[in-house]
Each structure stands twice: as structure tokens, then as C-alpha cells.
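Fig. S4 source data, part A: sequence.
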Amino acid sequence: MPGTLRERYAEAHALIRRAWAEDQPFVFNGRYTKLRYANCWPKPVQKPHPPIFIPGGGSVETYDFCIENNYNYSYLSFFGYLRGRRLMDNYWQRAAELGADDSPYRAGFAQSICVAETDAEAERLYGSHVSYFFNRCLHIYPGFVDAPGYRTVKTIQSEFLNQLTRPNLGAAASLSWGELVERGYIVAGSPETVRQRMEELIKTLRVGNIMCLIHMGDMPPEMTRYSTELFARKVMPHLRGIWKDYEADERFWICPLAERVVPAPIAAEAAR
């Protein structure tokens, strides 16, 4: 039910956070979820909890939820960083209004990326697969995209409507490779071209976490590995130092055990 979606989400969030924190089974008697024995085992290693990333698509209330809880706000978009700038500018404005710090690791962004040895090779290798994605993979019935109740009045007034509306999808499907690159729907080309665009993306949106969407449409595995390897070897090393002034901010990073735990042999356990 779209009208109760936020209430259900808030209740599920409270249940998960409590299950991570409690040391004993407990009763959870919510409005939508009722559990006689709620027990989280094994427990999360990281305390008080692992970093939490919340996907956002334009709901203003999600800004506040992430900022107030110190969760990462991740804008998941198929339409590139140039179209995402207004939304992210408003996120950072809201963070300032609530007195939050400006660590870029508070924010994340999903970007489609295609890397080849040259710009021309990128178009030759990935052009048909990118076209397949925007033409064949984003067909969603409009009634499911933005059903009444999904978005609050506050969000509608802000004019941040769902990116998967018919005008957006239709426009993306009709764009050429060059237009998709120019408008930032995809970051594609040689390692140097991709590096420059990624640096622009990171600084423009002020994001410290990038979800790299390297597989697109019907791209075969070997082509995906090729693009991934080039990105890892020839692009990533040049991007790591952009936010070096915030390297000490570990709130949004996974912190594994200091020492690897090795399970005891089953026979030894049984003999005790």
C-alpha cells in the first residue's frame, strides 16, 4: 500500500536497529510486524552498527532521515550526474540547515561507466549495449513508477519527481551515443576521458561514495571485465586523493575485525 509505505519503512527500520543492538531475544509488537521471538544472530561485528546507505530518488524526507541518523544518502540515477546536481545541491543545503558537517562521505551517487583504450573504441564496444539498456531495460508501467502515496506533498512541492517517468525514459531511449556522453547519462571513453568526467562528477556533486554501474544491458561478461579492469587500473588510482582532507571520517566505512577469526575444527569442539 503506497499510502502506508513510509510507516512500514520506519517500523522495519526500528526493528532492524533494535535486533542489532539487543543481546537477548525480544518481543516486537509493531503495527505491521509482530514477532514473538525476535533474535538477531550472528550479531554485526561493527558497533554500534555497520554503516547504512539509504537509496534516494528525490524524497525530501529522506534527506532528513539520513542526516539525522548519520546514514549515507545515495542518489541512484540512470540519468547521470548533470541531471543529479540540483537534487544533490538541495541535499547539501538541507544538511547545512540541520547543522550537519559537510563530509562528502555522507553522500553517494550511482553512475554508468564504460572504459576502453580510446574514446572511439568505447563507442564501438559498448554502443549497442548502452542502447539496449536505455531502449529495452527501463520499461516500467507508469502506474507502478509513481503511484499515489509514494511521494509526500512536501516532495511534490519541491518538484523532485520520479526519474523513471515516461518523458525521461522516452528522452533517454532516443539519444545517440554522443548525446548520452555529453549529457552525462554515461561516463564513457578512454581512461583519461573517464578520469576527467569522474573527477568533475565527484566535485560537482560532492560525493565520496560512487556506485559504479559498469555492466549495462546485454553486455557480455568478458566485455564487462575489460571495462572494470581498465577502470580499476587506470582511473581509480587518480580519484582516491580527491577528498584526502576527510580521510579520518570512518563513519561510512566498513570496519572488519582486527584479526581474522579462524573456526576451530569440528572434532576439537566435540571433544571438549
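Fig. S4 source data, part B ends here. The mean pLDDT is 88.
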